[in-house]
Batch of 2 targets.
Target 1
Amino acid sequence: MHEMALMESLVEVLSEEAKKHNIRQIHKVKLIVGQLTHALPDALQFAFSVLRQYPPFSPEADLQIEERETRGRCQSCSAEFAVEDNYLFICPQCGGLAVDIIQGRELQIDFFEGD
Ligand SMILES: [Zn+2]
């Protein structure tokens, strides 16, 4: 379950940010999680429910997760499209195989709240 490791590193970042901003207790965290991270929201929630037992979190801290689908942009015709299959990047407009991933790799803290 790599979600626990992911959440541990996010918690580390959150702890440092909280210290920087003189926040003693974090009540709410919002994450943006791209499909390509293969991080399951339920597993992230579970990991968070374990880790929020320790400072600087409130034991009832809330975790919100915004999932982002995988999106690609064709290098030939610049079409942007949602990628249904995580491993198949083909432009639906021209069939091109040179596709840049423009969304889906995110794993970031959108914001957090505390006092
Ligand atoms: Zn194309």
Note: The pocket of zinc ion is lined by residues 74, 76-77, 79, 91, 93-94, 96 (CB under 6 Å).
Target 2
Amino acid sequence: MAKPANGRTALVTGASRGIGRAIALGLAGDGFDIVLNDIERQRDELEAVAGEIARIGRRAIPLFADVGNRDQVRAMVATGLAQAGRIDVVVNNAGILIPNLVENLLEQEWDAVMDINAKGTFLVVQAVLPHMRERGYGRIVNIASIGGKHGAPEQAHYSASKAAVMGFTRVLAQEVGQFGITANCVCPGIIVTDMGRTNLSEQASIDKWVGITALRRLGQPEDVVGPACFLASDASAFVTGQSLNVCGGITLS
Ligand SMILES: NC(=O)c1ccc[n+]([C@@H]2O[C@H](COP(=O)([O-])OP(=O)(O)OC[C@H]3O[C@@H](n4cnc5c(N)ncnc54)[C@H](O)[C@@H]3O)[C@@H](O)[C@H]2O)c1
């Protein structure tokens, strides 16, 4: 078992709902104070999560920024560091999915998905790295997707963005390992969230996904928490550059 993380701080992006909210609460349960990020539109939801974390007895610092915007990311990380004093863990969870066939895909749709899912991960990591490097410690957990390994129709741009996150993470791990920093991906399968429901609009789709899942059920946000918390902890000190499927056995490796 990992030691409690009391005194440490984790930054979780896209934390107002779904998988990000669950991971933020899970990390708070492990003892982390949490810098919570989401976009301004999610203010009420993010502040509600901050309240839940405070009730666990941990500090929550909600900060609003679009992870695809470099200036906003820089300001968020600077404020988070000023208020929390340290960032030990980053969970790059913010993401979007805009289903469309390649043939119909708009340039703006491609750009939006790439900006948030792929560039957002890079921008947050780049903003936090000098601090982690100075302290000789860091855990970077990037939420990719099994969609980045295989993918499904209408999600080519999403798949490309998540494959980019995995490639980025593999090289990042090689660059920062010497500074005591690990970088890994978690690749969820079909998880019941606002985004996940995009894949589950009809009973036939639910049946299809459950049918190809070894554990014969859909995932819940809480299913992603244990693997993410492991990669955020000292228990994973010798694990880096990996992409861990958390999908109930849809993708096997
Ligand atoms: N749900 C699934 O089935 C599934 C599967 C594989 C991977 N994922 C990944 O897990 C992560 C979380 O997804 P989810 O299912 O909880 O989706 P969700 O839509 O419920 O949550 C995504 C969160 O990201 C936030 N966000 C969106 N754009 C942002 C931006 N520019 N800056 C900051 N925050 C932003 C949203 O406001 C929201 O709170 C995503 O990266 C997603 O790609 C989800």
Note: Residues 13-14, 16-20, 37-39, 42, 66-68, 93-96, 116, 143, 145, 147, 188, 190-191, 193-196 surround nicotinamide-adenine-dinucleotide (CB under 6 Å).
